[in-house]
Design goal:
This protein has about 425 residues and is mainly beta. The protein contains 6 helices and 20 strands. A 16-stranded antiparallel barrel has the order 1-2-3-4-5-6-7-8-9-12-13-16-17-18-19-20. Strands 10-11 form a two-stranded antiparallel sheet.
C-alpha cells in the first residue's frame, strides 16, 4: 500500500501513527526527512534561585550583572532552549544555531533582541586549515564568564562581566592555526550589545549618521600542548574590541534626562585558566579594561554632556573538584571606574559621588546530587573600597545607600537538558 509523502512526514515527527508493516513498505520515502533532521539537536536549561540579603532595607543591591530585583526572594532566572545543527568534518560543512531565552536574566542581557539569544548560520570554507564562519547574532568573544550561569564556577557574576557585551550581531570567522593557537576575528554593528538592526551610527552628539560604521572584534587563544605535562590544556586568551558603544544618558537643564548617542568604545580582555599538578585543582585570572569616550552635544535643542567613562577589573579564581559530585569554587575581584554604580546601567554626566572602587569575594559549593542538575550554595561579600556607602536602605540626602558592605547568600538549582 502506497502512503502519501505528507502522511509519512507527519508520522516521522510523531503527529500520526502508522503500523510497522506500512512503514517498512514505504521506508525509502523517509530517507530525505531523516537526513534533514538527524544531525539536529535540542538542548537547554531551566535556571532558578533563592537569594537572601541579611538585614532590612535592601533597596540598593550590588550593581553587578543580573542581580537587580533578586534580593530576599525566590527567582526564575531564565529558561533557555537551543536548537542546533553543528558543523561536521566535511570541507564545505554548514549548520545553524537558534537559541531562545526567556525570563528576567534573558531580558537583561538581550540588548533589545528578546527573546532571541543567538541566531546564526554557520559555514566552513576550505581555506588553509578551514575557516568557520558565523553570520547573525552570536555570544560575545570577551570575558572569563558566560551569561549562562551554569557554565561559570560561581552563580553571581563579576563587575568585569557586567561591563562586557553579551551578544554581537555581525560576521565572525574562526581559524585554528594549530592545536596551540586559534584566532577569532569579527565585524559587528556595535561593540556593545544592541538590537538586530542599528542602521544609524553616529560619531558624536552633533554629527550626522555614518551608516557604514562597524565595530571590530577579536580574540586569540593559546592552549598548552600535551608536552607541558600537568599544565597541558591550560589556556591564555587575549581579546580586543573597538567600535561604537551603547547609547548613554545625559542630563539637560533642570536635570531632565536625554539620550546621548554613543562615541567609540575600546574593550580589552586577558584571561587564563591554569591546570596544576594537583588533580582537579585549577586556577584562573582575568583582566578587563574599558574606555568610553566623551560625548558632548545638543540633543533636542538642549545641551547634554557625558563624562568620559573608564573601567578596570581584576579577578582571580580557584576551583577544586573534591569528589565526583562535590566541587568548591572561590573568586576575588577588585574593580574601579568613574561612577561605577552608574556606569553599570548608563553613563551619567552628574553621577552620585563616589563608589568608584569595589572589592568582592565569593565562595561557592556545588554538589551534583541529581542527574542533569546543578545545585549550589553561594556566599558573596561586596565592599565599597572608597568613602561611599552605596548598599542598603536608601539615603535621600546623599543618594545611594547607608552601608559599605553587602552580604548575599544564594541557592541556585539548574536543570540542563
Amino acid at each position: 500500500m502506497k502512503i502519501e509523502k505528507w502522511t509519512l512526514g507527519l508520522a516521522a515527527v510523531g503527529l500520526v501513527s502508522l503500523s510497522p508493516a506500512l512503514l517498512a513498505q514505504n521506508a525509502p520515502q523517509l530517507v530525505p526527512i531523516q537526513t534533514a533532521l538527524s544531525a539536529t539537536t535540542i538542548s537547554g536549561y531551566v535556571d532558578t534561585s533563592a537569594v537572601w540579603n541579611p538585614g532590612t532595607g535592601n533597596a540598593n543591591p550590588a550593581p553587578y550583572a543580573l542581580n537587580a530585583g533578586k534580593q530576599d526572594g525566590f527567582n526564575l532566572d531564565a529558561v533557555d532552549i537551543r536548537i542546533q545543527k553543528a558543523l561536521d568534518e566535511s570541507q564545505w560543512s554548514a549548520g545553524y544555531v537558534a537559541e531562545i531565552s526567556y525570563g528576567p536574566d534573558a531580558i537583561a542581557i538581550d540588548g533589545g533582541a528578546y527573546p532571541i539569544r543567538q541566531a546564526y548560520v554557520e559555514l566552513r570554507t576550505p581555506i588553509g586549515n578551514g575557516i568557520d564562519w558565523q553570520l547573525g547574532r552570536w555570544d560575545s568573544l570577551l570575558g572569563y564568564e558566560s551569561s549562562d550561569s551554569m557554565k561559570n564556577p560561581n552563580y553571581t557574576h563579576t563587575y568585569g562581566k557586567t561591563f562586557e557585551p553579551t551578544e554581537n550581531t555581525g560576521l565572525l570567522g574562526a581559524y585554528k592555526f594549530c592545536d596551540a593557537v586559534s584566532l577569532q576575528l569579527g565585524v559587528a554593528d556595535t561593540v556593545a550589545t544592541s538590537p538586530f538592526s542599528v542602521n544609524a551610527r553616529t560619531d558624536g552628539g552633533t554629527s550626522s549618521a555614518i551608516e557604514s560604521k562597524k565595530a571590530v572584534l577579536s580574540l586569540v587563544t593559546l592552549t598548552a600542548p600535551d608536552s607541558w605535562g600537568a599544565l597541558k590544556g591550560s589556556t591564555l586568551a587575549f581579546g580586543a574590541d573597538y567600535g561604537q558603544g551603547y547609547t548613554s544618558t545625559g542630563y539637560a537643564g533642570g536635570g531632565l534626562p536625554v539620550a546621548v548617542p554613543a562615541h567609540d568604545r575600546t574593550e580589552l580582555y586577558v584571561g587564563t585558566t591554569i591546570n596544576t599538578p594537583v588533580k582537579d585543582l585549577t586556577f584562573g585570572a582575568s583582566w578587563d579594561a574599558i574606555q568610553h569616550n566623551d560625548v558632548v552635544g545638543s540633543i533636542d535643542g538642549v545641551t547634554a554632556a557625558v563624562d568620559s567613562g573608564y573601567f578596570i577589573a581584576y579577578a582571580g579564581y580557584v576551583s577544586y573538584k573534591a569528589t565526583d559530585k562535590l566541587t568548591i569554587n572561590g573568586r576575588v575581584e577588585y574593580a574601579q571606574g568613574l561612577g561605577l554604580a552608574v556606569l553599570t546601567s548608563a553613563v551619567d554626566s552628574t553621577p552620585t559621588p563616589g563608589f568608584d572602587k569595589v572589592l568582592d569575594a565569593t565562595g561557592t559549593v556545588q554538589y551534583d546530587l541529581w542527574e542533569n542538575v546543578i545545585s549550589r550554595i553561594e556566599v558573596r561579600w561586596d565592599h565599597a573600597a572608597d568613602e561611599t556607602t552605596p548598599f542598603g536602605p536608601s539615603n535621600t540626602d546623599l543618594g545611594g545607600g547607608t552601608k559599605k558592605n553587602e552580604i548575599t547568600v544564594a541557592a541556585n538549582v539548574i536543570y540542563k537538558f
